[in-house]
Amino acid sequence: xDDPDAVExxxxxxQPMGVLERFPNLKCISSLGAGVEHLLSDHTRPEExxxxxxxxxxxxxxxxxxxxxxxxxxFRRFDDYRSQAKLSQWKYLKIPHIEVSGxxxxxxxxxxxxxxxxxxxxxxxxxxxxxxxxxxxxxRHFFGSDKFNDFLNCTDILVCLLPLTPETENILDTRTFNQxxxxxxxxNVGRGAHxxxxxxxxxxxxxxxxxxxxxxxxxxxxxxxxxxxxxxKITVTPHIASVTNAATAxxxxxxxxxxxxxxxxxxxxxxxxxxx
Amino acid sequence: xDDPDAVExxxxxxQPMGVLERFPNLKCISSLGAGVEHLLSDHTRPEExxxxxxxxxxxxxxxxxxxxxxxxxxFRRFDDYRSQAKLSQWKYLKIPHIEVSGxxxxxxxxxxxxxxxxxxxxxxxxxxxxxxxxxxxxxRHFFGSDKFNDFLNCTDILVCLLPLTPETENILDTRTFNQxxxxxxxxNVGRGAHxxxxxxxxxxxxxxxxxxxxxxxxxxxxxxxxxxxxxxKITVTPHIASVTNAATAxxxxxxxxxxxxxxxxxxxxxxxxxxx
Lengths: 276, 276
Hints:
The structure is a homodimer.
Chain A lengths: L8 E4 L15 E4 L5 H4 L10 E2 L4 H19 L2 H9 L15 E5 L3 H13 L2 E6 L9 E4 L4 H6 L3 E4 L13 H6 L4 E5 L8 H9 L3 E6 L19 E3 L9 H17 L14
Parallel strand pairs in A: 1-2, 2-3, 4-5, 4-7, 5-6, 7-8, 8-9, 9-10
Helix pairs in contact in A: 2-4
């Protein structure tokens, strides 16, 4: 950038810490994705400049696909059938009815609600949990920390779709796992820092949790020698659950650029105090 | 059976050939499942006795789950991600948009239509094909043998849910595969006899088809030494896509028993000439 004074709009993903204070005339800072923790954690960020994020239908759809597959993979025991097939073993395995198995979605914002409704439409027994009240006409919804245990008690498959904030960091820990029924399964598509890795390994090794599907990690790419790669109850995917679609996201980014330079109200603005 | 004359209702699955002619006073023969090919192929079956089958919501739902998982598994390349994970490989793989990939459902009866609508509701681009016209408000529908190639031409993932009749036996053959785009994928949840096994292996080995998920086979259990078990592009499951649910199916079987003994019209009666 030759002339930092001329920059009015910053579009960021994992930007170098401190870079934003170099631009004195910013009117808007936009995340390239749905998450904004990389912006909120940069304490040199000019506080008076509004933050926006991308709310993309394609991103929601991709997430619903990943979670639907992960839920069916576990619920219908396709992992066990694959192991049997390696031994040429023809054996029927019992499964519960779809209405019996409880799917719990943590995080009930734009993405969480979309995923919850898609699973419920398909026949699953879905509950959602979030910090505050939310519209939830199609599924059971719990909110607030005092309802967290009630939510976990009826959750056989837990899907983390929370934003990363100081309050949600490390939320997937032994205390949380212990509230879920024995044999429960974890899908983390939030952020790596939601999960206390050692607590997960302990819960899997003790048999309390039956398995985990993880798409996000504290360090990405996940280091080659990380034990998650080879743990037999953990499935690792390389942060592919859903990616921002350039064709659809660019439309709302351009819209916010126009609104910011015209001084009009922005869309998908982040509540900095709340963290999302 | 001590007194064959006293038997008025026969409930059958893979009955010994010829057994039905031993009961002179049958008023109804019911299949235990959705298929009736085991009854139609028994030429000693008393022709004047009406045939009925089970049309079970749980059976449809189970099939939708299996097909949804199989479609997502292939479409989202989870098989490739599993191979990468074995090598601790962190690499994003490109996939098409969900609207671009064409899902073709062969067989558009009770089950086929249910599965097609569930996939369409979820966002997939779904077409159906059947012998005759059918109600199809939510997806594109082709019918008749002269539209079969048009249907196949736009099918990237083919799902066979046909009933087994003399007309549909061996329908999954080289001619059919060649009409599908290169790289297409096959899911057979119909019957084993729909598939010409050697033609599938040829299409996979030439690279024209990219893979197959098979739940039904000419011989079940699939013999331990059958090459499908170990073919790297074939996934075998042991006829578990969907099973008749006793709790729900028994209600309609009892209903037909009452109707048959009272001489009232039956439900889910089979058109013997059509074969389903």
